[in-house]
User: Which sequence fits this backbone?
């Protein structure tokens, strides 16, 4: 019953602010600017990416940040795990969609991502490769089509494990992040069949 109500709500709100929906998050290989604590947001909105990632913002300024991003005809995504004053339950996720008009969320929280998906938000699962067993433990979660994309961190391991990751995720878009220090790092990632790179290094937002 609750899911049915969410889907009904989705039909009413889905067209309000989501002006890029349909298909993959990214249509070409893209460096996604991560505006850490909302800083350099103006520069992030001037980047070639049509997605801007909000990292470390808080529930008090996320609305203004999203509005600014939309004003520049970009999509606003947010790391909900590190958003100050935010609780990633059903009420919180609905607030991001209906009040703040966020376009997508990134998280390690499977329940939060499932709720966001029902509400029509794009979902990016964040996977940390801590050791060789991390990928094997996550294998059951990485089903093709379950998420809009999967972000793998750190980028060095994302590249080295790409072929194995691909056997689990099928055609799901892959994004790499963490320890992106140079254009050379980005080139290596793109040459390894990743569609996107997330970085807070504003010198690389081109």
Assistant:
């Amino acid at each position: 019953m609750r899911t049915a109500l969410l889907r009904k709500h989705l039909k009413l709100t889905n067209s309000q602010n989501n002006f890029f929906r349909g298909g993959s998050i990214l249509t070409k290989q893209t460096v996604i600017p991560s505006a850490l604590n909302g800083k350099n947001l103006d520069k992030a909105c001037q980047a070639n990416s049509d997605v801007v990632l909000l990292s470390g913002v808080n529930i008090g300024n996320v609305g203004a940040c999203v509005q600014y991003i939309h004003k520049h005809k970009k999509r606003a995504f947010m790391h909900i795990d590190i958003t100050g004053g935010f609780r990633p339950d059903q009420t919180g996720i609905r607030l991001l969609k209906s009040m703040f008009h966020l376009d997508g969320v990134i998280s390690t929280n499977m329940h939060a991502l499932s709720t966001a998906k029902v509400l029509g938000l794009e979902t990016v699962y964040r996977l940390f490769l801590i050791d060789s067993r991390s990928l094997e433990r996550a294998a059951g979660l990485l089903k093709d089509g379950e998420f809009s994309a999967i972000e793998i961190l750190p980028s060095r391991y994302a590249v080295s494990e790409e072929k194995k990751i691909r056997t689990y995720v099928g055609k799901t878009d892959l994004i790499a992040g963490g320890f992106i220090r140079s254009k050379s790092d980005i080139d290596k990632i793109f040459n390894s069949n990743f569609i996107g790179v997330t970085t807070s290094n504003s010198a690389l937002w081109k």
In short: The longest strand covers residues 30-36. The mean pLDDT is 89.
